[in-house]
Design a protein that fits this description.
This protein is an alpha/beta fold and 193 residues long. The protein is built from 7 helices and 7 strands, in the order ββαβαβαβααβααβ. The protein binds iron/sulfur cluster (SF4). It comes from Trichlorobacter lovleyi (strain ATCC BAA-1151 / DSM 17278 / SZ) (Geobacter lovleyi).
Length: 193
């Protein structure tokens, strides 16, 4: 079903107010300098956990967990994500997604199967390429943010504060950008390596 690079069995911080497991999807099209999940970036690398192992694990946790969050890497890179979300919902769990929004159409296909989305914003959209290393990434992220805003799905916009964002009033620009979506920007600290 999905290529999976890891599983966190229990967390209180990855889905607001819920006890969740986190499934780390393999592969990401972007290359942010501060990424602390480098081992998950290569989509050609085989997963380390099978979908069957995830399902077996969750069957034993039905009464202990509220939600399952798909993170990465970039979960929407994998076209089978909507089926995976549907399967998790059928088991009785809430579904969550962490995304940077590089695939707006695939995000759109997932929204009806999602209970909550945390979208990571990298910079003001015009400056995205400088963080992700990929031309046009800001346009795609903006489309995803618009889709999310209009979806009615509970969501959060977050950003990782790294030295790039500390220059030129960029955080304030992002804060205004998100307030334009009728939401608040959540700031997260970058892990220094
Ligand atoms: S989008 Fe996320 S997973 Fe992909 S390179 Fe950037 S920080 Fe890493």
């Amino acid at each position: 079903m999905l290529s999976i690079g890891g599983l966190t069995p229990f967390t209180t911080i990855d889905y607001p107010g819920k006890l969740a497991a986190v499934v780390f999807c393999q592969g990401c099209p972007w290359r942010c300098s501060y990424c602390h999940n480098q081992h998950l970036l290569d989509a050609g690398q085989s997963g380390t956990v099978t979908w069957q192992e995830i399902i077996r694990f969750l069957e034993q946790r039905r009464s202990l967990l509220d939600a399952v969050v798909f993170s990465g890497g970039e979960p929407t890179m994998q076209p089978t994500l909507p089926e995976a979300l549907q399967a998790i919902r059928r088991m009785g769990f809430l579904t969550g997604l962490h995304t940077g929004g590089p695939y707006p159409q695939r995000l759109a296909a997932c929204l009806s199967q999602l209970d909550w989305v945390g979208m990571d914003l990298k910079a003001p959209f015009k400056l995205y390429d400088q963080i992700t290393g990929v031309a046009g990434s800001g346009t795609l992220a903006e489309q995803s943010a618009e889709l999310l805003r209009a979806s009615g799905v509970s969501h959060q916009f977050r950003t990782t504060v790294d030295p790039f964002l500390l220059a030129d009033n960029r955080i304030e620009k992002m804060r205004l950008m998100v307030e334009g979506f009728g939401a608040k920007l959540l700031l997260q600290q970058a892990l220094l390596r």
